[in-house]
Amino acid sequence: MHVIRKKGWELPESAATDESVFLRRRELVKAMGLAPAFLAASSLPGFAAADPAADPTADLYPVMQNLRYRLDRPVTEEKWATTYNNFYEFGSHKQISGAAQALKIRPWTVTFGGLVEKEMTVDFDTLVRQMPLEERLYRHRCVEAWSMAVPWSGFPMKALVDFAKPLSGAKYVVMQTQADKETMPGLKEFWYPWPYTEGLSIEEATNELAFIATGLYGKPVPRQNGAPLRLVTPWKYGFKCIKSLVHITFTDERPVGYWEKLQAAEYGFWANVNPEVPHARWSQADERVLGTDERVPTLLYNGYTEFVADLYKDMKGEKLFM
Ligand code: MTE
Q1: Average pLDDT of each block of 10 consecutive residues along the chain (322 residues)?
Q2: pLDDT at residue 50 in the model
Q3: Residue 75, in any domain of the structure
Q4: 115-135 burial: b if 16+ Cβ within 10 Å, else e
Q5: Is the dihedral of CA 91, 96, 98, 102 positive or negative?
Q6: Measured from the CB, is residue 228 less than 6 Å from ligand 1?
Q7: Residue 220 beta carbon below 6 angstroms from any ligand 1 atom
Q8: What CATH number does residue 292 fall under?
Q9: Ligand 1: which atom is nearest the Cα of residue 237?
Q10: What CA–CA distances, in Å, run from 265 to 41, 141, 158, 269, 272?
Q11: Residue 1 within any structural domain of the chain
Q12: Ligand 1 proximity of 238 Cβ (cutoff 6 Å)
């Protein structure tokens, strides 16, 4: 693979191989005079159909791609992104995609609490239909030094923050994954600090890159990737991208996430990607590209410096990169 080292968003969208599939689909939609939602994803190569009976939001996808977010590398093949996963609730190894099918994703509610105008419990299917859906091609860099590039569908996290109406004193957003002992065998491993919890500062959560994914590869997001909704923060290590959200709380206190609680010397709150700051036990200088044998250099903020560097310019004393 030839990796071009330019800012991702300067490159033509055609730099992403699988993108031809997206373009064909868009052209077809245009030619037919139809909104994308009316075009069955199954009618085009590379897209297996979502089962509308199994997922009541299947009709929403595919959604239009936001061309502002571009890649400098090919899109990872769907089979890799959906079979090589981290979801410790289903096991502390990568092959959890089968076990994760036990996740019950309907009915699914999300609570909004803490420093908000009014606490709310909202049904996911109602929520997602109120949100401005789009598709974004994003890089993903795991703290374990592997990476992928995938088409997420979903909406800006800012839209979710606006929906929640936080009070002016709210400084952080804390998110929690469902913790169901019946369906999640990982929860028996009592030394892990369940439920999986992660947080962002309000400034990060409302940064244009912060995204709530509800879809992947033009279909509802699979269970193993965090159905029905998960966080995507492409400039941070992947452990911040908390899956299968059920609770969203606004606070004035910095939360301690799952990994930080487990091993504070190795995982911190900010967790921004930086090739020059090694993990306590390995280098972060380069990364293995999922589905290939290649290693490519890791980029500061995973290549998203122009979008996010300002967030941290006055935080000299903070451990921004662990
Ligand atoms: N969210 C929950 N609830 N549980 C997890 O174990 N793993 C994190 C993150 N979100 C994790 C999680 C890590 S370490 C990574 S790299 C990404 O999910 C992996 O996302 P993917 O499986 O969709 O590639």
Answers
A1: 37 39 45 39 42 81 98 97 98 98 98 98 98 98 98 98 98 98 98 98 98 98 98 99 99 98 97 98 98 97 98 96 96
A2: 53
A3: yes
A4: bbeeebebebbebbeebebbb
A5: positive
A6: no
A7: no
A8: 3.90.420.10
A9: 16
A10: 45, 20, 31, 11, 15
A11: no
A12: yes
> Is residue 14 one of the residues assigned to a domain?
no
DSSP-derived pairing of the beta strands 211-216 and 120-123: unpaired
Evaluate whether 211 touches 240 at the Cβ level (below 8 Å): no
Amino acid identity for residue 133 in this structure: L
Phi, psi of 132 (to 5 degrees): -80, 95
Residue 173 vs residues 59, 73, 201, 256: alpha-carbon distances, Å? 30, 31, 6, 11
Nearest C-alpha to atom 14 of ligand 1 is from which residue? 239
Range of the domain at 284: 22-311
State how many domains the chain has: 1
- For the question of whether the overall pTM of this predicted structure is more than 0.85, the answer is yes
Question: Relative to the CA of 81, which ligand 1 atom is closest?
Answer: 24
In 28-133 the beta strands, taken as DSSP E runs, fall at 109-114, 120-123
Q: Which tokens sit at 66?
A: 């936001």
The answer to whether residue 202 sits within a structural domain is: yes
